[in-house]
Amino acid sequence: MGWSFTRGSRGCSCVLLLLVLVGAASPQEVEQAKAEATAALVQVLKLWNVEDYGAVYDRGTTTTKRLFTREDFIGRMRGLGCKTTCCWTTFELHNADYQSPRLVVVAGRVGFEWTGRIVPRFQCGPRVQSFPMTREEEAWRIDLTLILPFF
Question: Would you tell me how many other CB atoms lie within 10 Å of the CB of residue 131?
C-alpha cells in the first residue's frame, strides 16, 4: 500500500518537514542571538582598541586560529598601524542578520584611528563592514582574517 499525495498536500508536507528538520527559532531566540553576536563583536573591537591582541585571538573561530599562531597574529596586528577608536565611535550597528542559531552577520560602521607608531597599511578611517559571527563552544566567535586586511 503506497501513499498518494495531491500536488497541494505534497508541498505543504515538505514545508512542515523542513521546519521540523531545521528547527525554527522563536522570535525571542533570534533577537537574543543577534544581541549576543553584536555584543561579542563590540567586545572584540574594544579589545582591539586597547591592543589586547591575545584576547582578540582567543575570540577567533577555530578554523581561522588554525591559519596562524597566537604570536603570529599578535605580530601582524601590531604591524597594522591602525586600531579601532574608543567609546561610542567604535561601532555603529547598521543591522544584524540572523542566518541560523550558529551564524549571525553583524554589519555596521567601525571607527579606526592611527596608532601613531607606524604608517597604517590600509586606510585608517571609519568604514562600513560586515562580520559573520559564528557560535562555537557556547560563545560567539569572529573570523580573524576579516580583522587582518592583508592576510
Answer: 22
